[in-house]
Amino acid sequence: MGPTPAPPSEAVALLAGHTGEPTHTQLLSDRRGSRAWRVQGPKGMVVLKANTPDGDDVRDKVSEMAQEDDHLLRLTAAGAISPDYRVSAGAWEGGRWLAVNWIDGAPLWRAFALARGPEGDRPAVRPWLAGIARTWTEHLARMHASGWAHADVQPTNTLVTHDGHAAVIDYALACGPATDRRVPYRGALTHTTAPEIATAILSTPADTHIPAQPAADIWSLGASLFWCWTGHRPVPYDDDLDRLEKLATIAKGTTTALRDVRPWPFPEFEDALTTCLAPDPADRPTAKELTTAW
């Protein structure tokens, strides 16, 4: 193993005005052509993301990084996300970087660990689960009202804060009103891909942009909550299948019955999840409607 990659020095120097002189830097992830670090100083903490400079897909990752920054600026201007989220962005010798404020929360899968077992069947857990789902849905409702879909709704892009609220991150793949897209959308995490997106991927060339609609976010929301609460993905398939074979299974629109895999009964929660996973987008509730269903 080589040395731990360091964040771009150009970004760290610029961020010192926001965080103060960095006192601690931690590599959080290094996968799929991009890296993320937590950079902490006496005045604050940020997540700094940058493309991997020596990857095979440098051009695509640089474009994706620039695309996410553009999305953050436009979503902020539309009032869909907090103006406190984006910190700064720019170029470095290896490509592009982007910094956002640190959100102190646990990834959804880890946060739901107690709820996945029979010990989660207790009065305090029900409003906690419903509160996470409701605040997640409220965030999506603001995006959808602005003409945007997040397009990458999945467990790793949702953090649960200490007060039981959902915080949404990672807007690189978001789909909005503008058509000047740098990287075509071809779906995100396979396991939470809506059936209509799966169908479009299978029926169009690999360089065709598929504009995700808000209804696809709703299916992905239901899939993420289903998966993290039950421990089972809503569409069963063999992990040895390739991505296109998995998408073909998802495109059929059939999901596992929640009552067969739920860790314990929660009728209101189950009903809302089931409506989110309707195979026809027209049969799913809107995010605004869902905010009162949890």
Would you write up a description of this structure?
The protein has two domains: 9-101, Phosphorylase Kinase, domain 1 (2-Layer Sandwich), CATH 3.30.200; 105-290, Transferase(Phosphotransferase), domain 1, CATH 1.10.510.10. Helix 4 runs antiparallel to helix 6, helix 5 (195-203) crosses helix 7 (243-251) and helix 6 (214-230) crosses helix 9 (267-276). With 294 residues, it is α+β, with helices and mostly antiparallel strands. The chain has a five-stranded antiparallel sheet, with helices on both faces. A three-stranded antiparallel sheet has the order 6-7-8. Strand 7 (158-161) and strand 8 form a beta hairpin. It contains ten helices and eight strands.
In terms of topology, how is this protein built?
Elements: H1 9-19, E1 24-31, E2 34-41, E3 44-51, H2 58-77, E4 86-92, E5 95-101, E6 105-107, H3 108-111, H4 125-145, E7 158-161, E8 166-168, H5 195-203, H6 214-230, H7 243-251, H8 258-261, H9 267-276, H10 287-290
Antiparallel strand pairs: 1-2, 2-3, 3-5, 4-5, 6-7, 7-8
Helix pairs in contact: 4-6, 5-7, 6-9
Concise account of the structure shown:
The protein has 294 residues and is of the alpha+beta class. It has 10 helices and 8 strands. Helix content is 37%, strand content 16%.
Task: Name the quaternary structure.
Answer: single chain
Please write the string of helix (H) and strand (E) elements: HEEEHEEEHHEEHHHHHH
Rounded Rg: 19 Å
What is the averaged pLDDT score? 95
Strand content: 15-25%
Sheet bearing the most strands, described? 5 strands, antiparallel
Task: Please list the strands of the largest sheet in the order they lie side by side.
Answer: 1-2-3-5-4
* CATH fold-type name of the largest domain: Transferase(Phosphotransferase), domain 1
Let me know the number of strands: 8
Classification by helices and strands:
alpha+beta
Distance between the termini: 47 Å
Q: What is the name of the CATH superfamily of the largest domain?
A: Transferase(Phosphotransferase) domain 1
Low-confidence spans = none
Number of domains: 2
What is the helical fraction, as a range of percent? 25-40%
